[in-house]
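Moderator note: this is an archived Q&A kept for reference. The question asked for a predicted structure of one protein chain; the sequence and the answer are reproduced below.
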Amino acid sequence: MDLVGACRAFVYVSDRGGFTPGAAAARIPQPVASRRVAALERHLGGQLFDRSTRRAVLTPFGREVLPAARRLVRLAEELEYDAERARHSPLRLAVPETCATRDLAALGAAGRDAGLRLDFRPGPPAVRAAALRDREVRAAVVAVPPVDAAWRVPLGVGSATAFEVRTLYLGTLRVGRGERPGGGRRLWIQPEDDVPHVRDPLSRSRDALGLGPGQVLVASSLADAATEVLVRGDLLLCPAGQAEALGLYWCALGEPVVERGYDLVAQGQEETERLRAPLAAALAHCLDAVPDPAAPEPAAVPDPGRTP
């Protein structure tokens, strides 16, 4: 028996004083209301209405159980409302600050295709991890070592001037004889790469190669690092796609070879798996990750300024 449906019919018939108006208020046919009330009477073991009158008059037993029936109907309606709100509420997803707006739009479109309304919360790696841990977001794109990553992003160096080599080695930044200390070219690590598996190998190589302590630095922001690249001729650690977006020349970095690593983690393994499949291709594009030949292309976002 549908206990909630039967109680709803019972409450509406009682409130309206008859089976016909009660059924209309409950938006069910009158015979259905009658059957549900009769089933509830059998279930509870007592008669709810005095059927000797034309109106639906409660019996003493009916008056006793009506308040509980009201509570059950009210709780069921609250549950339905909360479930509807949960289905349509955005899923907060922490993403890297380096994701371009257009790529995030494509990721959002992929989410809509999967029935997900994504609410993006950009931030650096530590902020994303903390937001997931503190349940400020339901899922996060977290930075992990490449060996554990679902998506890998090769890093190289960006420069305001063209490179004469295809691969740049950190040793070439060493200050030569006669140059003043601290006058060498600097390599800037942006906040997105301020993680141990990227920062520490570069710092160790810097020290092993005899570079100055200020020649491999973590920038306070991507904008600050890019400014130093444009004004002072420094280098920016970045993937090729980001260099292109910033209008920089790019080449690979040799010794040490470093990569960004990413994984998508949600509040629980089941939700993690539910999100990964539909978002994988668009998220790889958003992160500038190494393409997976088996992955489908991400959904294209129309350019409003381009004529067909």
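Archived answer notes: The two ends are 58 Å apart (CA to CA).
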